[in-house]
Amino acid sequence: MAEFYSETQRSLQDRFGTRGLANVLEERVLRKRLTERDQKFLAACDFFFLTTVDDRGYPTVSYKGGGPGFVRILDDRTLAFPVYDGNGMFLSTGNVASNAKVGLLFIDFERPRRLRLHGEARLLPADPMMADYPEALFMIRVALTEIFTNCPRYIHHYKRLDVSEYVPRAGCETPVPEWKRVDYLQAQLPEKDRLKAQKAGETITEDVYRKNFWKGVD
């Protein structure tokens, strides 16, 4: 099995005198299976950050959100989560289809803590679990290979106020995001999205959308 640390990481550890510390952390913190505490933490999360790598070698970091518990713990080495409607670029899912290696970062901002996971992902367009997730396009199952906690000292303390109204829910029509009403995108939207956008209201210009997006920044 390949070493956890690369030569360049080892070089920096040596430069700053932390090789021994890194060895102890690998031995005592790094694990292959989710503990019961890990599983409870993940099951309570309603978002995480997903890292994938494209064919050019560039990593892509994507925010993934849903209702609390939308990440399903299948066993102590496997988890699954849905892929919902996005911007149509399919960056993360396209990357997973060609390179299974992924990283996941779960953060609790209310009681600062975080958990990092590495694994190999599979994109499943016909997974039976999709029936539990309204409007899911795919399910992604991740076979975990490395799990470790990180010091939370630099995590700022924030409090969640509400769940996004755009998270799909059974028996509830999901609102149309404003960007799908931008005029120059209408001809390129899939027909079902174009009809929903027309039903949601008049088209808007790119300038209006950008002003709304950046409101409070200028």
How would you characterize this protein structure?
With 218 residues, the chain is of the alpha+beta class. It folds into 2 domains: 10-150, Pnp Oxidase, Chain A, CATH 2.30.110; 178-213, no CATH class. Helices cover 25% and strands 26% of the residues. The protein is built from 6 helices and 7 strands; from the N terminus they run αααββββαβββαα. A 7-stranded antiparallel sheet has the order 2-1-5-6-7-4-3, covered by helices on one side. The protein is globular, with a radius of gyration of 20 Å. It starts with 6 loop residues before the first helix and ends in a 5-residue tail after the last helix. The model has no long low-confidence stretch (mean pLDDT 94).
Whole-number mean pLDDT: 94
**Tally of discrete structural domains:** 2
CATH class of the largest domain: Mainly Beta
Please, what is the CATH homologous superfamily of the largest domain? Electron Transport, Fmn-binding Protein, Chain A
State the helicity in percent bands. 25-40%
Low-confidence blocks of residues:
none
Number of strands: 7
Helix/sheet category? alpha+beta
β-sheet strand percentage? 25-35%
User: What's the architecture of the largest domain in CATH terms?
Assistant: Roll
